[in-house]
Amino acid sequence: MALLSLDEAYRRLLARAHRTDAERVSLTDAVGRVLTDPKVTAAVDVPPFANSAMDGFALRAAGTPGVLRVVGEVAAGARELPTVEAGTAVRIMTGAPLPPGADAVVPIEDATEREDRLTVPDGVPSAAHVRAAAHDTRAGDEICLPGELTPAGIGVLASIGIGAVEVRRRPIVAILSTGDELVGPGESLGPGQIHDANGVALAAAAIEAGATPLLLPRLPDEASPIESALVDAARQADLVVTSGGVSVGRHDYVRAVLERRGSLDFWRIAVQPGKPLAVGALGGATVIGLPGNPVSALVTFELFVRPFIRFMLDLDGGDGRLHVRATPTQRMTKDHARRAFLRVSVWHEDGGIHARPAGGQQSSQLRPLADGNALLVVPEGVDAAETTQTYEAIVFGPLLLTGR
Ligand code: AMP
Ligand code: MG
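# magnesium ion complex -> structure
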């Protein structure tokens, strides 16, 4: 079978995605969620009243420099406000409403208070240290908060008096590992067995992408348990992600189940790592069968499943990662026919971004993916990443200022 290009596979997969429905959550639960409508109209001014930016004295700017009589005090939250007449001042705390008559604040350290006499040695400009009403937001302003809600975005919503918001439901992503050789992390290994790294790693990747994972029990390489688990998973989840059992081995059953019980689109994609990908539908859910090698599973998750989840959340197209151009510090070979996603560390130094291999590049070598911070994208039709060229890098960890 001819290899499908990555772009074509991506396009065909995304055509299956739908947005999740809306749900109302309190602001406490809203971080990382996506507003169904990013535009919000402020109903109140923020701040609602003029107030002091400093601890100090509210006064009339025109009466400074001079000696003033202190006639009272206002703290944050005060309801009763003394009036500031000519020749007087009022002690004021940060955030307290500016009392009537006052038009400026002198900070405590710029004046001397003795008994009820306040000496202000220098002229205070009008409006000094006063936060005008609505200087952050005016009632009627349209605030736009697209994408994942950040702590600051949530703070803005709270500041305009909103306590709950309508967001996209997090897609439920069922995760299934297949393989007779697998035992759970934490369990001891028998002959021929390995720990299931993919289950928890893919669940973590689902969380990172904004979904709620449903980590289901591991499956043996047997047709009927795989069939019933997949059918069951499709009832509970928006998306079912399996790992292993999708290549052309004698015990690869995921494809067979999709073919029999739903629909199957099987692709051999021109990517390295990750060639085989099974995509299909079962009940109302999309099923994506990832290859079993841990690096292949995580890289194909990054390339296909992550954008799929983000589409369901109504996040703007793509993977939501930082993409940069980087220069390899050494030649890195690859498969000529496929687009390679090499596990690298990238860093910024001397005005450029550099990439070095984060370790061995076999798809069973997971450590370099954990040690690195980027995938270096090297196109089809070349044998290596060359030190004389720059390549796109998909950055999934912090971009450091030094490579050492
Ligand atoms: P498969 O795609 O099932 O042929 O698996 C390819 C390779 O990945 C084999 O060496 C498997 O043992 C390994 N593998 C499959 N599933 C997992 C898993 N969940 N965790 C770690 N390695 C796995
Ligand atoms: Mg297997």
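# post-check
Residues 177, 179, 181-182, 194, 196-199, 243-245, 247, 249, 291-294 surround adenosine monophosphate (ligand 1) (CB under 6 Å).
Helices lie at 6-14, 151-159, 198-209, 223-236, 254-261, 294-312, 367-371.
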